[in-house]
Amino acid sequence: MRSTIGRRRTLLAILLMVLGVASDGSQDRPTVDPEIVRARADSAAGRSRDAAVRLIRLGEQARREGDPVTGLARLEAAALLAPELGAAHASLGQAYVLADRHASAIPEFKRALDLGAPPGPITFLLAGAYWETGALDEAERNYRALIEPSNTPVRVHACASLGSLLVWRGKAEQALDPLRVAAAASPGDRAIAFDLARALEAAGKPENALERYLALADAAPESLGPQYRAARLLAKLGRTQESRSRMDAYRAAYARDQSAARERQTLRAELDRAWRLLSEGDYARAREAFAAREDVPEAHAGLAAVAETEGRLDEAHRVLANAALRWPDDEALRIRRARLAGNLPR
Q: For residue range 177-188, what is the model confidence (pLDDT) as tens digits?
């Protein structure tokens, strides 16, 4: 629905940034979650609210630890056990957004607001869910509700998203003011700057737009959108030689981008094959496949998984410990290492 650069900034990226929630990952889990069973038992004993609060905490914990499936199941159970609890519906709505189930998120966010949940962040997420489902009037109305008070915590994000939405809807003139507010508050945000340049171009201000496109392209030559739009706009303005130079830069960057994409696809295919071999019990070939890509942390996680499956726990610990030294900030390695050590529930 939206441009790639716009989507990077809008709903999901901002949600993850603000909430610090993992957006991907999967873990093996039992068919019946004992925490949900326990919560239902507590509910039957008259402790529904306490059980729901505990499930919310455990559901959020599971999401942070890279297990969105378990997290979503626990949050759904919490909302059923205590439908009067706004926090349950707010958390469930966020989980639905992360699962790309935006239509399911909308009634949860609305229910949370009705029950007194903090309106700023929830209204922002509700607006994004409306946008994703094509309810553009409702998305615009909710974004505007957030930018009218000048002191709301999410006002800058709302201005950026409203501006992007208005450009999408062909209302470029209306998009300028909110995008200028957002750009002034976040001068280093390239996505906002790009959206503002697009709005200026669509609003019939080509010189102003070109200035911004060129600044973005010069600051990051690999940025395809600014390079292409600058080349096209230069041609429209009769600056043919400059346009050709920019288009050559765009084509070179595009070729590099496509080459990198092919490399990523090849890597993903090789790692998927290794995981499949492991799941099929072909441990020797799985180990060989993972070892062939030791330049990425996931391959080391795979080697540790092979060792663990074969009962060589000391080796699995050693592989993960060495990988953690090489990639100290890799969250997936940290979670897998902690699980192996028994620090997290399996």
A: 999 999 999 998
